[in-house]
Amino acid sequence: MKYQYSQVDKDNFDWFANDVTVASLTEVSIEIGNLRGLNTSKIEFKYPISVIAGRNRSGKSTILAMVACAFHNKKDGFKLPERKVPYYTFSDFFIQSSEEIPPGGIVVRYRIMHNNWNKSPTAPNGIGNLYQVRTKKEKGKWNKYSRRVRRNVVSLGVHRVVPPSEKSVSRNYKSYFSEQAPAGWEGRVKEVVGRILSTTYDDYKMKVYGKYHLPIVASQGVQYSGFNMGAGENALFEIFSIIYSTPRGTLLVIDEIELGLHENAQRRLMQVLKEVCKELHIQVVCTTHSSAIIEEVPPEARYYLDSFSGKTNIMTCVTPLYAAGKLAGEDTNELDIFVEDSDSATLLAAFVETNMRKRVNIIPIGSAIPIIRQMAARYKDPRKSECIAVMDGDQAHALNLHKNQFLKALESNKDAAREADWFIQRLAFLPGNTWPERWLIETLKSVDIVGFDELLNVSKEELSTYINTAVSASKGNEIYTLSKSLSLELANIYYLSATWLLKKGNNDFQPIYEILHKFLS
Hints:
- There is one protein chain.
- By secondary structure, the chain is of the alpha/beta class.
- It has three domains: about 5-160 and about 245-320, Rossmann fold (3-Layer(aba) Sandwich); about 165-230, no CATH class; about 335-520, no CATH class.
- The protein contains 19 helices and 18 strands.
- The protein has helices spanning about 5-20, 60-70, 170, 185-195, 230-245, 265-280, 290-295, 320-325, 340-350, 355, 370-380, 400-410, 415-425, 435-445, 450-455, 460-470, 480-485, 490-505, 510-520; strands at about 25-35, 40-45, 50-55, 105-115, 130-135, 155, 180, 205-210, 210-220, 220-225, 250-255, 285-290, 300-310, 310-315, 335-340, 360-365, 385-390, 425-430.
- Strand 8 and strand 9 (about 210-220) form a beta hairpin.
- Helix 11 crosses helix 12 (about 400-410) and helix 17 (about 480-485) packs across helix 18 (about 490-505).
């Protein structure tokens, strides 16, 4: 289902792009080196909440650590009770035993929207979306942390879901906890936690002992402490107590944000969190394994991490279905693409990058008419996955005819304008104004084939002769003729020709790319 942007979303996009007073982190990248398996890669943040998914060992926790280490802080800045200093360093997250070799030769770059940069040609007023760099030489230390931009940062790991009843320290000091003076935000905390858990709290207060704290609530005439709360309930009180006690513009880094919560509570958590971001201009970067969490944020706020042979790949604007399939180790087929025949399917597949190819299902249907009927059937059954139609290029001139045939196939038109728009938005055409075989062979003839000859293990002169012969073949037999001359399978010729043209910079498939990205995000 296509994501519906709310007014809260729009307001969050607006302030995140324009408020220079809170030092929003807009980008983090590893320029050089390898940090705990995460190598040269970049992630850009465009929304105040960023949700990062990925399988174990993909690098999610490493990104969270890098984010937490983006800023410094004033001596009197906010810090969690158990921390000695109000900021984080890489040593808080990257700990080596005596047998391990510490990372080195690393350059991490941060881009920050800030209003207190040193004045320079790029920021004459000290305002801008500029970069800071963290470096660590081989066998050396990170450059001075004190040079970082100041901002309050809070990092919450998975330990937050361990209830006090399972912490030996809390159990040992259970009779020492004493009630602290109200801070003024307790009412807000009990209200938002109640919304998330669909319950009503009559009271909420916090007891403390040294650096330890214990929530106490009253609900439906019963008073109980964190010792008798579920893990999710206890974690929510901790998260929102921290949010409402930190200054405006704080950066929160949360590992596995969904822990301890059922799916409906996860959805309500993200809805509340978006409202809080709008109110307090906080930024949240979190990881998750939950498609429900991903589904509740705009596509621009979704990221999926993959790692292949030591190379990190960060995908943006992923759908919840795609993330769920990847986490399960399966291709998701989020989008069905109806094409005319198997040759068109092979040609299209060659021009679609691997990550996108795993998300689509290219289905040969027949000629234009069967495709239109299939689209009409899908319109009548919205429960199925999203779909588009990609017809051959020689069908592009008959757009109005196709639209009318679609309306006719629906049989009963309740809103012809809306129905026609649905179809037109999902209709694309292969390149050229002719049939695919003719477009492909004419395109090969028009470009320099140096490199293509080596790929096919044939001389340039011989390949040129074969291409010229194929151009003269009867309609639809052009690539078949070329495949016979080269003694290669027909599907191989389609695929090799298309991928080679793509590497040559051919952009004839750009309109199809645009419609694919539209329905996959």
